[in-house]
TrEMBL record:
Signal peptide span: 1-19
Species name: Chitinophaga agri
Any matching Pfam family: Thioredoxin_7
Superkingdom per UniProt: Bacteria
High-level lineage: Bacteria, Pseudomonadati, Bacteroidota, Chitinophagia, Chitinophagales
Keywords: Signal
InterPro entries: Thioredoxin-like_sf (IPR036249)
Protein known as: Thioredoxin family protein
């Protein structure tokens, strides 16, 4: 019984501080409006863009980054895969975001937005560590 309670507490506390990458722009911006957090929008090509795959593995999946983002950001990934199908309504939303914030079609492109979808900054995306990326975000959020 104690073991189950202990596991429940670990799951409850670990889930409450880490950010989750949202796939739905409507949900991401609604969360941002409700929480007052900024939106970190990542344009990605999940099955063909090597730098995107690397960024996802090194930064977006890192527990240190997810804990930081859980306090400060709503994470939104607009994925443009070549093999996987994206539902048409979701694809239209991604296309609209790309027209507004990634007209050159750069991948990966990382953008910091207000909850009202106003551009705050383009976030440099180099081969970085999670700590280096967090430092960059802290500077941009000041």
């Amino acid at each position: 019984m104690r073991c189950i309670l202990f596991l429940f507490l670990i799951v409850a506390f670990s889930g409450s501080v880490s950010a989750q990458v949202q796939q739905s722009p409507d949900k991401a911006f609604a969360l941002a409006l409700a929480s007052g957090k900024k939106v970190l929008l990542v344009f990605s090509g999940s099955d063909w863009c090597i730098p995107c795959i690397r960024f996802n593995k090194q930064i977006l999946s890192d527990s240190t980054f997810l804990r930081y983002a859980g306090d400060k950001l709503v994470l939104l990934e607009a994925d443009f895969p070549q093999r996987k199908k994206i539902a048409a309504p979701l694809r239209l939303q991604y296309d609209s975001l790309a027209a507004a914030f990634n007209p050159q079609g750069t991948f990966p492109q990382i953008v910091l937005l207000s909850p009202q979808k106003k551009l705050l900054a383009y976030v440099p995306c180099k081969a970085e560590t999670p700590d280096g990326f967090i430092t960059t975000l802290k500077q941009l959020l000041q």
